[in-house]
Amino acid sequence: MKKQQSGFTMIELIMVIVILGILAAFALPRFADFGKDARVASINGAAGAMKSASAIAHAAYLAAGNKPATVKLEGTDIVLEHGYPTQAGILAAAQITANDYDIATPGTVAVKSTTNCNVVYTAATASTATPPVITPPTIIVTADGC
Predict the structure, then answer these.
(1) What is the phi/psi pair of residue 142, to 5°?
(2) What is the dihedral of CA 49, 132, 66, 51, to 10 degrees?
(3) Using one digit for the tens of pLDDT, what is the confidence trace for 95-121?
(4) Is this prediction's pTM over 0.90?
(5) What is the chain written as a DSSP string?
(6) What is the pLDDT of residues 42-65, one digit of tens each?
(7) Mean of the pLDDT values across residues 24-32?
(8) Beta bridge partners of 22
(9) N or C: which end of the chain has fewer CB within 10 A?
(10) How far apart are CA 11 and CA 18, in angstroms?
């Protein structure tokens, strides 16, 4: 008498795993949206570039010692106000261009074709006291709508 086979053969198990792998490869991109993570990372990268550029421009301003109106970073003149880049100057200092971001509003960098996915640079301000108290620029990231 022949013994009855019970269970699955190795080939049957391998075929099921291969079929599940193929289905997962096609189904995963449909259900997982990695675009949002990319947009959040992009806007955080722009914010980091603005913070670094602001600090570098301010350091160049302090190193110059004679309170210049502009500093030169990588061959580009950066316009300063109170020792920090202006809203227009921060884009040049951080090398942020319209090719990568929506920069229609001065000081605001947004991921293209999204709403509420931006970083806002507010230029430094000075008080009217003597001597004036300089408030450094603020950089606020909004990633709710990415």
Answers:
(1) -120, 115
(2) 0
(3) 998 898 988 887 788 888 777 889 999
(4) no
(5) -PPPP-S--HHHHHHHHHHHHHHHHHHHHHH--HHHHHHHHHHHHHHHHHHHHHHHHHHHHHHH-S--SEEEETTEEEEEETTEE-HHHHHHHTT--TTTEE--STTEEEETT-SS-EEEEE--EE-SSSSPPEEPPEEEEE-TT-
(6) 999 999 999 999 999 999 999 988
(7) 78
(8) none
(9) N
(10) 10
CA distance 105 to 107: 6
- What pLDDT shows up at residue 85? 94
What angle (nearest 5°) sits at the alpha carbon of residue 108, between those of residues 116 and 75?
145
**Can you read off the two tokens belonging to residue 3?**
């013994």
Looking at residue 131, what is its pLDDT?
85
Tokens describing residue 115? 């709403």
Structure confidence by residue, pLDDT tens digits, 78-93: 999 999 999 889 999 9
- Angle, CA of 53, 58 and 61, to the nearest 5°: 130
Using left for φ > 0, alpha for ψ between -120 and 50, and beta otherwise, residue 83 falls in left
